[in-house]
Amino acid sequence: GSVFGDLMAHIDEIELPSAHITQSQLYGLVNAIRLQETTYKSSGSVHGCALFQGDQMLMFVEDVGRHNAVDTIAGWMWMNDIDGQDKVFYTTGRLTSEMVIKSAQMGIPVVVSRSGITQMGLDIATHLGLCAIGRATNKRFLCFSGAERFIWQPELA
Prior knowledge:
This protein is of the alpha/beta class.
């Protein structure tokens, strides 16, 4: 309750940059995650998060707590003065309201998940104009919100 309340306190002050993701960039980052050596592949029970610029992975982190993983990326961005405007945040976990808000607070306009999205996560992503893509595996995905940020490439169908 109190953590969520603090996250929601300034949500209307967030303005995301007008960035896009192409279908080929999405396929590239999903493939990069597939090729990434992970603790999850060898033992399971962890959440993975990554920060991408286009289809280039800038950082990958795993943790038993999904919030620890996203907070590690947020801290790394802050410590290295990295702007989120042209970045994509990837998570193996669900796009919950907290994950969506944290991504927006980092200034990241596109989030991708191997998993799905919660109703509250969808409501907030829609409110912010954030592109939320879920169920992203291989060349399958669902664009839940912010479809105007997604650039389809019919030649890839």
